[in-house]
Amino acid sequence: MAFSRRLIGVSILSCLLLLSSTATGDDDISRAAPANASRSCNNPYRMVLVKLWIDGAEHESIGGLSAAFGSLLSTDTKNSPRLPATYTKPLNGCSSSSFKLTGSIALALRGQCDFLTKAMVAQAGGAAGIVLINDQEDLVEMACPNNSTVSNVTIPVVTISKAGGDVIDKYISAGKKVEIMLYSPDRPIVDYSAMFIWMMAVGTIFCASFWSEFTTSKENDFNEQSPEVIAGGSREEDDKEILNITTKSAFVFVITASTFLLLLYFFMSSWFVWLLIILFAIGGVEGMHSCIISLVSSKCKGCGRKKLNLPLLGEISVLSLVVLILCVAFAISWAATRKASYSWIGQDILGICLMITVLQLAQLPNIKVATVLLCCAFLYDIFWVFLSPAIFHDSVMIAVARGDKAGGESIPMLLRIPRVSDPYGGYDMIGFGDILFPGLLVCFAFRFDKARKKNVLNGYYIWMIVGYGIGLLFTFLGMYLMNGHGQPALLYLVPCTLGVYVLLGLLRGELKDLWNYDSESTRVADSLLEDA
Length: 532
Known about the structure:
Layout: H1 2-15, E1 47-54, E2 57-66, E3 82-87, E4 105-109, H2 115-124, E5 129-133, E6 157-160, H3 162-173, E7 178-183, H4 192-215, H5 218-222, H6 227-241, E8 243-244, H7 247-267, H8 270-299, E9 307-310, E10 314-317, H9 318-336, H10 343-361, E11 362-363, H11 367-387, H12 389-392, H13 396-402, E12 414-418, E13 427-431, H14 433-451, H15 461-481, H16 490-508, H17 511-515, H18 519-531
Parallel strand pairs: 3-4, 4-5, 5-6, 8-11
Antiparallel strand pairs: 1-2, 1-7, 2-6, 3-7, 9-10, 12-13
Signal peptide: 1-25
GO molecular function, one term: aspartic endopeptidase activity, intramembrane cleaving
GO biological process, one term: membrane protein proteolysis
């Protein structure tokens, strides 16, 4: 098990940079809009709800995006009409429809002509609005062609994804009466889910920092074992499981992550995402197993004494086997229901356990390595979010996080929670990398303070936790100011953690000690002092 824990730690840590950008959605949002007609081609792109009624029964709503032209939608349902949905004929909506559109919401497929032409044809046919169905799963921004500044369209124009169009087509093809209401409710400035994401991220790092304190029995350490055993046997076993990050491995992480990110960007498919789901489930099982076993063993010293010798697994305690079976069952249950509305709970539990375990396995030896690792991650994050569009004509990081080519599957290596007060639903998310990379530094600060016997205010740990929390708040503020676009969270987190650490070290005259710190040498020195 020790070898597998180390292997999983190395594998997961190498791929964590993939989703180090925090993403709360891939939509453009304007927060207020009057309900009146506009001839401008500069309307704000707003999220839209396409509310459905099937044979008179209210059905699910579909998310859409308004155009830069046409009528501006009402923000509530009271001022929004409920109208029948009718396909144009031809379906592309580029020429006059042979089907009557008067008093209905026209449905047209994307392609063959520009969006403005489709809207004008529908308007000329008497349609009260038009819904354009995209040929892909994203929401396209519909602008006027040739940089026009004025349009003659006075009906609302909305686009929906291919999946949304498939929902409507399913009922129309079945001969059912489909009615539509278009409206654009305002979104809250801050959703409550952001607070819970913040608490989960900070709480994960806090728990990982104190995990050894939570799970180490002082009575077992000092009464049942001799100092020689403590310094030798058990410590030696623990050290075998520790992955000490080096300057070289920091560069390798970034190169590996960049390569894997490009592979996902160019070759992403449902099977590729399924591979990530399987890897995540394996890592989650190992993380949950490790967390539960360490907690139970610290409280019940004799629980793991009964052993079994099994094929493949070798000698394993009954407790470990039972917990392993339960963890595997939990992971399989999550994978089988991963598209259910409650699946985020299982994903977050597996993810938090995995990250706590990784932060126990991987350790930074000093600030020198921390500076290299976090600066590389900092530049990586900025490049693949903000600068990659100059080369690939798309933000590679955000495209991968959205899962544009994943066939409806989503990458699981992030924490997510539903937006409870958002009329459009969706999730607030944070990538594992945004927790683990700063978390490595925070855990190092905890170990350094403990080794140097520093109190709370004179140490570094409390300032790292506070800095990390403030950095996350800056991240959420950045997403608000950028209208919900995913942000490279390390852009804010690295200065608020590593920057504060280095600044404090300079002010206290301890930067040299932090830069060249060797935990092993400190441990040996402390052991010699205790023996003396």
